[in-house]
UniProtKB/TrEMBL annotation:
This is Uncharacterized protein. It comes from the Eukaryota.
Length: 149
């Protein structure tokens, strides 16, 4: 929706003037907030769009996508931590809440019987068990997933 609002920005001014509701117009700071939100949510939008287009199995991509989303959150938080503008501080709090929600969803991948996402990752030719040999994975998870396999 924000993408659409951004595309239609040039139509808002004449519309609000014609219908005498200029108090609803967004100022430059509010447009910057929209730009920030679009930038932060872009990766979610891209992944959702790509995954919804495919009819292929995507189980093997779950961990990779979660890792990319977490990295994106950490990068965005690092950029906003230095900012002192109140709305950017609010956005930082929202990012922290979003990261907690993402973490909640991510933790549910381990609650499925047989660790289906890990097994799916190991069965994918482009990742196999090598995926779990990076520093991102603690040894106990490697052992658990290998046993499930």
């Amino acid at each position: 929706m924000l993408r659409r609002v951004k595309r239609l920005r040039s139509f808002f001014q004449p519309f609000y003037e014609e219908y005498d509701c200029e108090e609803m117009l967004l100022d430059n700071q509010e447009w910057r907030q929209i730009d920030y939100l679009l930038q932060i949510t872009r990766l979610f939008f891209d992944y959702t769009t790509e995954l919804s287009k495919t009819k292929e199995v995507t189980t093997h991509l779950v961990f990779k996508l979660y890792n990319a989303l977490f990295d994106h959150f950490f990068e965005a938080e690092a950029l906003l931590k230095r900012k002192r503008v109140p709305w950017k501080s609010d956005m930082l709090k929202a990012l922290a809440a979003g990261r907690l929600k993402l973490d909640e969803y991510y933790s549910q991948t381990d609650n499925l019987k047989g660790h289906i996402y890990a097994v799916g990752t190991m069965l994918a030719p482009n990742s196999r068990f090598q995926f779990f040999l990076s520093d991102n994975w603690e040894p106990h998870w490697r052992d658990t997933y290998r046993k499930s396999f």
